[in-house]
Amino acid sequence: MADFQLQIWDIIDILVIAFILYQVLLLIKGTRGWQMTLGITSLFFFYYLSRFMELRTIEWLLANFFTYFIFALIVIFQSEIRRGLAQIGRGRFILRLTGKKPEKQFDEIILAATTLSSQRIGALIVIEREIGLKNYIESGIKLDAFLTYDLLVTIFNPKTPLHDGAVILQENRISAAACFLPLTLDPYLSKELGTRHRAAIGITEETDAVAVVVSEETGKTSVVFGGEIVRNLDGPRLLKVLQKTMEGQAQALNFKTQGQKEAEQREQAV
């Protein structure tokens, strides 16, 4: 029984090490550290090759180099080490394990939405939740870029070719821009709502996504979830609504479609 428990802990140990190595590779991928890692791997290969071929001088040189290898790693990968420690401090690795998304994405979205709203520039931002939006991503221009305020504002600039359509966000990244979305068929929808609002309602009727809409005509900001819309949001209220909808607590916000509100008003009038 003790041997069986030891084998289980060995497997856990291997899995943890494999996960750490995977995260380290993700950290250095696309940086200068990646090429340096390949170079160090080559040195290890030549070391064992020299031992196999009994090349004593090369083996001695490489063996002495590896004596100070740990110090060389700290010097070579100092920027990557700093970035990795910073990510651990912000809880990025823990968030990846738990599947929770950092709220920093809300700050970028809110800042971009309020800026676009003040300038009366139309925008449609769709945030993916549990149901994938791959089909809609493929209809647009794939970006796969970090979510930033500057990039969002640039995309929706009327003078850029990507401004017409929706931006789709996946796990704190901008997956695609200029995406085509299905329009809602709600017959009671207010005539005040244009194509962007109808597309936002349409995509949230078919999926569990959350959509942020900035009206080009009025500059008002709205959030759509589950086919329902809440309008005229300022920055603090927009943050509250996004937090609730992303946590699946939209019912606490008393969402109602514009068509439902108008229908209720007509019933009360009768």
Structural overview:
By secondary structure, the protein is an alpha+beta fold. It folds into 2 domains: 97 residues, no CATH class; 156 residues, DNA integrity scanning protein, DisA, N-terminal domain (YojJ-like (1, 3-Layer(aba) Sandwich), CATH 3.40.1700. Helices cover 56% and strands 13% of the residues. The protein has a 7-stranded mixed beta sheet, sandwiched between helices. A hairpin with a 2-residue loop joins strand 3 and strand 4. 25% of the residues are buried.
Keywords:
270 residues, alpha+beta, YojJ-like (1, 2 domains, seven-stranded mixed β-sheet, 7 strands, elongated
Short description:
With 270 residues, the protein is of the alpha+beta class.
Ranges where pLDDT stays below 50 over 5 or more residues in a row are 98-102, 256-270
- Euclidean distance between termini CA atoms: 77 Å
Strand content: 5-15%
Q: List the secondary-structure elements in sequence, H or E.
A: HHHHHHHEHEHEEHEEEHH
Number of strands: 7
The CATH class of the largest domain is identified as Alpha Beta
- The quaternary structure here is single chain
Q: Kindly name the structural category.
A: alpha+beta
> What is the count of distinct domains?
2
Radius of gyration based on Cα positions:
26 Å
Largest sheet: 7 strands, mixed
CATH architecture descriptor name of the largest domain: 3-Layer(aba) Sandwich
CATH topology of the largest domain: YojJ-like (1
Fraction of helical residues = 55-70%
Calculate the mean pLDDT score and round it.
Answer: 78
